[in-house]
């Protein structure tokens, strides 16, 4: 029997590569997206398409309304998404308070239900925007907690949090996905993407993505809004 995993899928470049890696490692993949009230709803549509192209199980979407909490440019319409280089803080306003903890906790519940031994999350500590919940020590702490928190953990079925991209640059991530035959044209990364998934070309996320394709020497399939 194949090992099972839950893959947190946002519809962006990193999480999609993570899914391609999990599949390549022989996992039976259950994809999960969190509809948290993010600006970039086009990402959610993208995640559905990506899940359909790579997995057999129905894609799961769980709604957790983080607009009710706000505190981020991605969840509060009163806070503008800054253009790349505009943000002066070490941790920019696109940081969503406790997002990965909320995501991983939801994935943990789903993993327990489907009997998965692993959760894949596409966090990266290189080329990132300074988010504290993308660091290896955070992931290790969450894994320890997860094994104490669940029935499966207590009964001896250890759960791993797998972060295949954590030490990879954006360009290396793109090269990896490209080698695995993944089509990045399916993904949306922009913090300000419009309804049809066209990218703004100016936010942090667009900047790192564009630079990643250039450095990797791979054609960028991103569709940009003309402005
Ligand atoms: Zn953008």
Write up what this structure looks like.
The chain is an alpha/beta fold. It has a single domain (4-216), classed as Rossmann fold (3-Layer(aba) Sandwich). The protein has seven helices and five strands. It has helices at residues 13-24, 42-54, 99-114, 136-149, 151-154, 170-179, 204-216; strands spanning 4-8, 28-35, 60-63, 118-120, 160-162. The protein has a five-stranded parallel beta sheet, sandwiched between helices. Helix 2 links the parallel strand 2 (28-35) and strand 3 (60-63). Helix 1 (13-24) runs parallel beside helix 2. The longest helix has 16 residues, at 99-114. It binds zinc ion (ZN). Residues 190-192, 199-203, 205-206 line the site of zinc ion (ZN).
Using brief descriptors, characterize the structure shown.
227 residues, alpha/beta, Rossmann fold, 5-stranded parallel sheet, 7 helices, 10% strand, binds zinc ion
> What order do the strands of the largest sheet run in, or round the barrel if closed?
3-2-1-4-5
CATH class group: Alpha Beta
Q: Could you state the order of secondary-structure elements as H and E? A: EHEHEHEHHEHH
- What is the overall shape? globular
**Estimated share of beta-strand residues:** 5-15%
List all distinct small molecules, including ions and cofactors, that are bound in this structure. zinc ion
In short:
The protein has 7 helices and 5 strands, in the order E-H-E-H-E-H-E-H-H-E-H-H.
